[in-house]
Amino acid sequence: MTPTNRSEAGDDGIDTIAPAEVTLARADGTPTASAPAGREEDRTAAAPLLVAIGGLVVVALLVFLVLPGAVQRDERAAPAADEAAAALRTERTPAAAAGTAEEVSVAPLEGLRVQRERRAAQEVLERFLNLGEALEGRAVERWGATEFGGANALAEDGDAAFLTQDYELAQALYRRALEALEALSEQGDALAAARLEAGFEAIEAGDAGRAAALFDFVLALDPDSDAGRRGAARAAVTDEVLDLVEEARLVAEDGALDAARGLLRQALDLDPESTPARTLATELDERLERADFLADMSAGYTALRARRFEEAEAAFVRAEAR
Questions:
Q1: What is the Cα–Cα distance from 22 to 254, expressed in whole angstroms?
Q2: CA 313 to CA 318: how far, in whole Å?
């Protein structure tokens, strides 16, 4: 390889260096053709373009090979995400989800029938609840706890059927529970009447403690019972009334009928219905009337013997009027 430099003088006197010709030799010494300088510059300028084209090819391969798989994975993941969201909505609003499902799956005619059965069940349940509250106000736990518990168990079975939307069965169970409470209410009425009668009998027998307990029970069964309140008031003074009656009897036996009448008036002021006090008062009245009758007759005969005819006549008139 032999470089040859030639210089030429320009118009301005400055030498210009011409490009050197380079001869390449093969390994065996055979010379090769020299590459023009212009082609080397072209290859250098084309290199970035080739790199850019190669990058585009790689991107295209990625798009065609990788992207479809990612899209398929997203398509597979989308239904699962939708299902999870739907489940979350259902969990948050179960009643609304159930109602929507029912509206979609139940025909209008069947849906109307179901709604009527539902309302009918709720109406029976409301009656059951009202009567149950009334019985609780009548101290049902004191006299009908077992029956009351059985009725509530039937109502709970009705609740279970209601929650499964078996409204026909729920209504039947609620009705059985209501009937059980109605029977229990009638039983309470009969029991109150029996205890009321027994309470008054206890007063007449002088057993104030038993009478008070019976009337307390009556008022627990029926807080608005006028007879129960009256009986309780009488039971509270029974012992005092009986003491006054006994004292009046002793005084009357000694002949002090007016004093005995005074004691009986006190007893009757405490308990106007006291049979012992009223009975003794009647006996004293009869004794007093008899005594007054005898006194008038005696006064009449005395006046007649004294020839006081007008006075005798008046005494006989008073005696006849008694």
A1: 176
A2: 9
Give the phi and the psi of residue 30 in degrees, each rounded to 5: -75, 130
pTM: 0.55
Distance CA 279, CA 287 (A): 13
Residue 230 and residue 258: Cα distance in Å, rounded?
A: 30
Tokens describing residue 289: 């009337």
Q: Where are the alpha helices (DSSP H) in 93-107?
A: 94-105
Q: Evaluate whether 184 touches 140 at the Cβ level (below 8 Å).
A: yes
Residues 6+ apart with CB under 8 A from 165: 102, 114, 118
Name the token pair of 169: 């069965």
Cβ neighbours of 309 (radius 10 Å) = 10
Three-class SS state of 25: strand
Exposed (0-12), middle (13-18) or buried (19+): which is 158, by Cβ within 10 Å? buried
Give per-residue burial for 214-245: e unless 16+ CB within 10 Å, then b. bbbbbbbbbeebebbeebbebbebbeebbebb
Task: Quick: pLDDT tens for 13-43.
Answer: 444 444 444 444 444 444 444 444 444 444 5
How far is it, in rounded angstroms, from Cα 199 to Cα 238?
12
Task: Measure the CA angle with vertex 173, ends 171 and 177; round to 5°.
Answer: 115
DSSP structural state of residue 19 = P
Please report where in the chains the tokens 């179960």 appear, as a residue: 94
Q: What is the pLDDT of residues 81-118, one digit of tens each?
A: 344 334 433 443 343 334 444 444 557 777 788 889 89
3-state percent helix, strand, coil for the chain, nearest multiple of 5 = 80, 5, 15
The CA dihedral of 227, 229, 235, 240, to the nearest 10 degrees, is -110
**Can you tell me the distance from the alpha carbon of 149 to that of 132, in angstroms, rounded to the nearest whole number?**
11
